[in-house]
Amino acid sequence: MTESLVFKEAPKRLHSIDAARALTMLLMIFVNDLAGVKGIPEWIDHAKQTEDAMGFADTIFPMFLFIVGLSIPLALDRKMQKGDSSQSILFTIISRSFALIVMGFFHVNLEEYGQTSILPDAVWEILITVGFFLIWLDYPATMHSVKKYFLVGAGWLILLLMAFLYVGRDGNSMQPHWWGILGLIGWGYLVCALIYFFAKGNMTGMIIAFLVFAAINILDHGKWLPMHLWIIKDGSTEFSVMAGVIISLWYARMVKKGFNSALWLWMFVSGCAAIAAGFIVRPFTDGISKIRATPAWILICIGISVLVFELMIYLVDYKGKKNWFKLIWPAGTATLTCYLIPYLQVGFYRLFHFRYPDILNYGWGGFLRSWAVAFIVVIIGGFLEKRKLKLKV
After folding, report:
1. Contact at 8 Å (CB) between 82 and 175?
2. Domain boundaries, the chain
3. Which SS3 state, helix, strand or coil, does residue 233 take?
4. Pick from 20, 162, 301, 331: most CB atoms within 10 A?
């Protein structure tokens, strides 16, 4: 693997991807905070597990998975252009996945934290988040290596100590009840990035992989697959990520030919076709459900993601309206930082028994509160990024 795959002259970043990622992370923080608000319209919230339905909140996570896929070709091709060896690229893929899986594993066990543990759950939450920052902070190249390794080592010691002290609700130690948001992203990235790497970014190979994951998911939810497969299980995460990889490859090819009507038409038709396919398979594959990760939900969300990304391309890459997203831009460039800040926020809230006034916990008051929290978190993330306190995996 010695030559660039698709992005022959890959830019450092594609601003449309950053804009889409920023918008998605802002919305993720918003809907996570909104989960604690009563009296909000039903269509905004997550649909229940038993329902054949989806709310606005159910579209956010698959959009993020789609963006992970968009970034894979650009990131790996850029490393090849720099002359990184195959071993170095593989190490990057594995280490990045490992970091996300570890963080997701701790977050899942936070949900199962038992009251008989030595530390209050708020303290445990704050300390694991501090550990994440110490381990995966994007330390400046000028920092002395001894200081850097001391801080990273301190982070690992914190996580190991928190794992040792952990007691779950059932009295057990830490277990992968599921992998959490970050863990699912990590597994999806690992599988799809490795496929991209070994297939050398071949479009046909990516389409075949996408169809395989789609088939696994459809067969599983149609009750035609006798068992979950190892790592990918029902293939739902990889299904969404690989869709992003394919769109990214297509966009790269179209950019080389200039922005023309074929780009806009192809992406619009693809998005609409995915949404239509979701409604077609809906009656045969367990309906629409985020919690059950059904094919209909995935296809509809892929379609929405394609259309939103097309809008970002038009506004940011084509019309140059990057400044429209200036306020939320840190959510696209310091994304993991912005995602983890609310864990510190909620941890300190619980530790000091802070409660919002009732007016901010219900209806429009809570709705506006959640928007305010989302924007404040992103602004703090930008503040930290400017001071070189950004996480990077």
Report:
1. no
2. 15-112+175-386
3. strand
4. 331
How many Å apart are CA 156 and CA 52, to the nearest integer? 42
Judged on CB neighbours under 10 Å (0-12, 13-18, 19+), 357 is: exposed
Share of the chain above pLDDT 90, in %: 82
Number of neighbours of residue 227 by Cβ within 10 angstroms: 7
What single DSSP character describes residue 347?
Answer: H
What whole-number distance in Å separates Cα of residue 375 and Cα of residue 261? 35
Looking at the DSSP bridge assignments, the partners of residue 391 are: 137
The dihedral built from the CA positions of residue 164, 170, 176 and 178, taken in this order, carries a sign that is negative
Cα(43)–Cα(53) distance, integer angstroms = 10
Contact 73, 196 (CB under 8 A): yes
* Per-residue pLDDT at 10 exceeds 50: no
φ, ψ of residue 84 to 5 degrees: the values are -65, 140
Q: For 170-178, which contacts have Cβ atoms below 8 Å and span 24 or more sequence positions? A: 170/112, 170/114, 171/114, 171/116, 174/105, 174/106, 174/109, 175/109, 175/112, 176/105, 176/108, 177/108, 177/109, 177/111, 177/112, 178/108
- Global pTM value: 0.93
pLDDT in tens, 291-347: 999 999 999 999 999 999 999 999 998 899 999 999 999 999 999 999 999 999 999
Cα dihedral 121/126/130/133 (nearest 10): 100
pLDDT digit string (tens) for 85-137? Answer: 999 999 999 999 999 999 999 999 999 999 888 999 999 999 999 999 999 99
What distance in Å separates the CA atoms of residue 117 and residue 149, rounded to the nearest whole number? 30
What's the confidence (pLDDT) of residue 14?
80
Exposure class string for 187-199: b at 16+ Cβ within 10 A, else e: bbbbbbbebbbee
With H, G, I as helix, E, B as strand and everything else as coil, classify residue 15: helix
Alpha carbons 213 and 207: distance in angstroms, whole number: 10
The answer to whether 30 and 370 have CB atoms below 8 angstroms apart is yes
- Rounded CA gap, 3 and 80, in Å? 7
Rounded CA separation 389/143 (Å): 13
Q: Please state the separation of Cα 336 from the chain's center in Å.
A: 9
